[in-house]
Structure formats: C-alpha cells, structure tokens
Amino acid sequence: WIGLTNLLDGLGEAWVLDLKMGTRTWTTKASEDKVESQAKKCKLQTGPLGVRVVGGKLRRPGAAPDAPLERVGYHHGQPVETEADLVTLLRDFLPTDALRTSARAQLESIEAWWKGLDCFALYASSLLMAHD
C-alpha cells in the first residue's frame, strides 16, 4: 500500500503545478482497440509536447504581491498547447535560478532512476511540483 502525506504542509502560499508526462498509456499486451483509443486520448491530452498541464496556481511576473494566485491548466480552462506557452509557464512557475536549478536536479535524479530500472516499464507519469 502507499502512504500519502500532505505535500503542501508547511508551505505558506503554495505555488503548485501538476503535469502529466508521456504520450503512451497502454501496455505491450493491450488489444488493438485499446492502443487505438489510448493513442487518440494521448494525442488530445498531451499532444506533440508529451506533457499536459493538468492544473496549477502561481503568481505571474508583474502581478501585485497580494494578488490572488492565477490558476492555470486544463482543469481551469486554460490548457497549455504550445511549446512557447509551456516554456513561459515553467519560467514563471520557477522564477529564480535557484528554483530552476533545484527542479532540474530533481528531474535529472528521477530520469536516472527510470533509466536504471530493468524490471518495470513506465509509459506515463505525473509530476507535482510545489514551492512558496
């Protein structure tokens, strides 16, 4: 079983970004119908970027410090559909060099772990990033 905790515990005003990663959600044993339906779903959801911004909240540059956090992503009616929009969102979500460096190090660690697996096949994943 998996034990979950509140990942936002201790954060004051949490900025959150929920991403779905990957463009394949079926196994090698899936039927042709399953492959076709899942491929169509992935094309609509993650598209050519290979990532879908499910939801998030952040304060964009230039917003007043006391302004409410902006909600972004598919679940908030603001899908991110182009690479330029994704880059802008990630730059705004990680507004300092220290945050970008930390996020990159964590992602590289996850990538190394994935590449080291020899008994699992991972086709898609979720990333939840948060900071305040």
From TrEMBL:
What cellular component GO annotations does this protein have?
cytoplasm; nucleus
| The keyword Magnesium appears for this protein | no
Q: Which GO terms describe its biological process?
A: inositol phosphate biosynthetic process
For this UniProt entry, which segments traverse the membrane? none
Q: Which InterPro entries match?
A: IPK, IPK_sf
Q: What is this protein called?
A: Kinase
What is the organism field in this record?
A: Zooxanthella nutricula
**EC no.?**
2.7.-.-
